[in-house]
Amino acid sequence: MKRIAASFFLFAACVAQAAPTRIDAEYQVSKAGLVIGRIVESYERNANAYVIRSTTSSEGPLKLFLDDSIVLSSEGRVGPNGLEPAVFEQKRAGNNSRDVHATFDWKSGVMRSQFRGESKDVELPPGTQDRISIMYQFMNVAPKGETFEVPMSNGRKVERYTYQRTGEATVKTPAGDFETVHYERVVREGETRAEVWLAKDRFNFPVRVVFEDAKGLRLEQSLIALKAR
């Protein structure tokens, strides 16, 4: 594997289009072609501050026996290197035992995580993104080169993700057809595979995302609607 020359946030801060200050997006989530969920997201930037909220709800056959929702939220600032999370939260309507609250102390280089009544400090590498901010980072700092690395946090720990560009493709979604750049996570055994397709004429916004865990569970996220200003 190629050696990573620099972290994600040392890339040139260039984007195909000026990043919008407000985005409302919807995705459908499917498994083996069957729609099982819907994601409703909002992103808002006010000067140098941002807020993101993402709600995933059960839909279709899944809702008949598991009517649940998960809310992810991220807020922080927008700096020269893009999004810098300050607070990340995960809340689940049907099971709050897995709720997570994390704060990012960039001066100290520490993420403080609260989970199941316990608190711990985790090393915070420069450029770390949380589970939802990463989806909106691409429009602020576009990937440059064939491979890039980004530290990722789920609010409990921080892991380094390496992505490799695998080409370009026309992606068909319920929201329309998009010319995209395709990136795939470089994984070791036991790690979750991830793929993302970024729309070249929609400020590098993710229009399709695929996750597959080590047990073979594969979920696809496809864009339904997108409004930006």
Account of the protein in words:
The protein contains two helices and 15 strands. It has one domain (8-228): outer membrane lipoprotein receptor (LolB), chain A. By secondary structure, the protein is mostly beta strands. The protein is globular, with a radius of gyration of 17 Å. The chain is 4% helix and 59% strand.
- Portion of residues in beta strands equals over 45%
Total DSSP E strands: 15
Structural class: mainly beta
Distance between the amino and carboxyl termini: 39 Å
Q: Report the biggest beta sheet as strand number plus sense, adding barrel if it closes.
A: 15 strands, mixed
Give the H and E element order. EEEHEEEEEEHEEEEEE
Strand order of the largest sheet: 8-7-6-5-4-3-2-1-15-14-13-12-11-10-9
Q: List unreliable stretches of 5+ residues.
A: 1-16
CATH class descriptor: Mainly Beta
Q: Estimate nothing, just give the exact number of structural domains.
A: 1
Helical amount among residues, as a percent range?
A: under 10%
Signal peptide: 1-18
Keywords: Signal
InterPro entries: DUF3108
Organism: Usitatibacter rugosus
Blueprint of the fold:
Elements: E1 22-31, E2 34-46, E3 49-58, H1 61-65, E4 69-79, E5 82-92, E6 100-105, E7 110-115, E8 118-123, E9 129-130, H2 133-137, E10 147-153, E11 158-173, E12 176-185, E13 193-199, E14 205-212, E15 218-228
